[in-house]
Amino acid sequence: HVGELEEERGNAEVSAKHYRELLNIFPMDAEGLEALDRLVSAAEGWDELVGVLERRIEVAEDDAERVDLMVRVAAVHLGQRGDAETASELVFASFELDGQDPLVVEQLTQLEGGDDVELAEQAAERLERVFRDGEEWDKLAELLGRRRRRVKDPERAEAFQLQLAELAAERLGDYGAAYEALESAFMGRPTDEELQARLARAAEKGSRQSDEAKAYARVLERGGLADEGVTRIAMRSAQLLIDGDGEAEAINARLSEVLC
């Protein structure tokens, strides 16, 4: 083909012209599209490249090739066009074809770290699946931490906090981190008996009973609890002080809160 000969001679522009003429007649010619892709990429003709890649996607022989091409189109939209929304559609579609492809994961990570909060959350949901399936617990913990900081809804933020606590305890063996996450959630919902029980278990496993007692003291000092809540927390606090050889004055103070 003339285009191939001109490319071999180093006449890229002339070669591209011949391939364009070929594709005007045979718009889905796979070899012609691949050659024009190569030439236009080298010339950084981004707008034309997008069109060529989109046609190559249509004639791709398998999902692996299709994903590779979709990732490349997404990269142009992200890098050269600054169009994160269009890029995200391609990345998410690529993810459904091969969620473990390193380039797809890389682009999901790029979207998750972007300024568009909605797209970041959509990318994060997919990354969470990747990290859970791959048992990449450290990466998952970092992701959940970012999601917690990003959300505005207190209930969703707490949900991420509790996921972090579960992950730290069950997958990372970091009971200290689990305790910190649970204490933060407990301070917002001190009347939640199940949450208090989880806090107590984490404190025991992480040897944080002293911190647990201090947390209960802050809750009691803050006030605003119904009598039943005061009784339950004061009893637990007193028991912790007794088990830890706490001062008699502090123990009596807790017990008096129960008896009042």
Structure commentary:
- By secondary structure, the protein is mostly helical.
- Helix content is about 80%, strand content about 0%.
- It is built from 15 helices and no strands.
- Helix 7 runs antiparallel to helix 8, helix 11 packs antiparallel against helix 12 and helix 13 runs antiparallel to helix 14.
- The protein is rod-shaped.
- The model has no long low-confidence stretch (mean pLDDT about 90).
Mean pLDDT: 89
Give the total of beta strands.
0
Q: Helical amount among residues, as a percent range?
A: over 70%
What coarse outline follows from CA principal-axis ratios?
rod-shaped
Structural class: mainly alpha
Rg computed from alpha carbons, rounded to a whole number of angstroms: 29 Å
Low-pLDDT runs of 5+ residues are: none
Q: Secondary-structure element order, as H and E?
A: HHHHHHHHHHHHHHH
Helical region count? 15
